[in-house]
Write a structure and sequence with these properties.
By secondary structure, the chain is an alpha/beta fold. Helices cover about 45% and strands about 15% of the residues. It contains eleven helices and ten strands. Helix 2 (about 65-80) runs antiparallel to helix 11 (about 250-260) and helix 5 packs across helix 10.
Amino acid sequence: MGTVDCEVKNHIATVTFTNPPKGFLTSDMVEQTNAIIDDLAEDENVRVVVFTGGLENVFIRHFSVEEIVSWVPDMKERRANGQPDPRFARTPLRMMWEKIDNYRKPTIAAINGFCGGGGCELALACDIRLAGPGDYTIGQMEILVGILPGAGGTTRLARLVGTGKALEWVLRGRTFYPEEAAKEGLVHHYIDGNVLAAAHEMAREFLDKPAASLSAIKQVLRSSWGKTTADGVDEEGDLFGNIIASDPRALEMMEEYIANGHKMEKF
């Protein structure tokens, strides 16, 4: 079973995702994360939260496709029985990304390996993204298994790099090596060294700054767009739920990906 660990040292919390052998995110890990970040939000001793991966060369590879496939029969049965779907963006599973996006304290993603799908969405929800060296990729590649991002990847990516780039990347399932990601603006900085150490060094910059001001800066900047992130994610989440419940080709592609040992070509 995957674990989410938290260490607090010198007012900086480090949240680490570990799920061997491949580093997928699961619903159980999301529940663990929700509990951790709720506790950290109320802990006055914690000023900054850093997220990173616990496996070599893996931040969060992506959300478990096996688990998404397992949702399909129940979703189809609900629809066949005339039961309305919940807004996918507002289900308990989805609230982890929402909480991080709206967190009052500064958040940093210390990307130290494969960061795709839900992992990339987590990084996009953070205030700052740092990527360390390695032969790994970052991006929203859901279309390669027949679906679309379901935890904010479309809306947050478009707000970060612009709608034009986001459309190309998400439509193609395009991913980037760390240095490429920095050049494209997907991450803030490429770190040619220990990315977690660099994240902690940056986090220390916030320790002598007023917490209330940092929170206010985050609030005003994140609400500056005409359409709220929540509205965009609501629409995306509904589309995601509709695809996995009703598109047989999407299910087929996810099952093919699982059967082929989770091999995915870089675009």
